[in-house]
Amino acid sequence: TYTGPYGKQLTVLGDNMQLRKEAVSKNLVGSIYGEVAILKDLKFKSQLNIGVNSDESDLFYTSKSSFALFEALYYDRPGAQLDTQQNEGWSTAFENTLSYIKVIAENHKVDAVAGVSWNRTVYDARAQHYRGFPDDNILTDINSATYIDDVESESLEQGLNSIFGRVNYSY
Fold first, then answer.
1. Gap between the Cα atoms of 140 and 87, Å rounded
2. Where does residue 80 rank: exposed (0-12), middle (13-18), buried (19+ CB within 10 A)?
3. Considering 52, 63, 119, 137, which has the largest number of Cβ atoms within 10 A of its Cβ?
4. pLDDT, tens digit, for every residue of 72-101?
5. Residues near 75 by beta carbon (within 8 Å), at least 6 away in sequence
6. How far apart, in whole angstroms, are the C-alpha atoms of residue 135 and residue 130?
């Protein structure tokens, strides 16, 4: 600690217990796969992959934290601050292929694959930034903030659908 223009100030290292962070993450990943021989040299394969994730984090800075002191000094935004963030996302991949492998007269080999694939990803994020809580040490209620400094959100949805194939011949 040192004495600065705003009284006793704390070092950035550890911030002397002036920062409280809580984060919870939930993730689920799953796959299923199946393969069946349609004919002696022809196989069908199907695969499904799914991933789901959700996380939330709260970051509370007391008015004595280095971050809050910086905000007060340079941006004229004094007081304890709370940053919250929520993220949710999921992705899927579904693939189907047919494969054909044939050896002819022990010297010639034909190897072919054809398939389709569907991939999709969805991501949503939200963040809020609050300031000016009546109790500097204990966050009791988010509604007791004097100011809402910023609210952000973003959403992303993307996908890729593919048709593919290849043929190899060797002798």
1. 23
2. buried
3. 63
4. 888 887 888 899 999 999 999 999 999 999
5. none
6. 13
Which residue, among 156, 133, 153, 155, has the nearest Cα to 145 in the 3D structure?
A: 133
CA-CA distance, 131 to 60, in Å (whole number)? 10
Q: Letter for the amino acid at 171?
A: Y
Query: pLDDT (tens digit, 9 = 90+) per residue, 3-39?
Result: 555 555 555 555 666 778 888 999 999 999 999 999 9
Can you tell me whether residue 17 is helix, strand or coil?
Answer: helix
Beta bridge partners of 30: 50
Of 101, 107, 122, 104, the C-alpha closest to 166 is: 101
Rounded to an integer, what distance in angstroms lies between the CA atom of residue 106 and that of residue 137? Answer: 80
Distance of alpha carbon 7 from alpha carbon 128, whole angstroms: 29
This prediction's pTM: 0.69
Whether the CB-CB separation of 109 and 170 falls below 8 Å is answered with yes
Question: Is 113 within 8 Å of 75 (Cβ atoms)?
Answer: no
What 3-state DSSP class applies to 39?
coil
DSSP structural state of residue 16: G
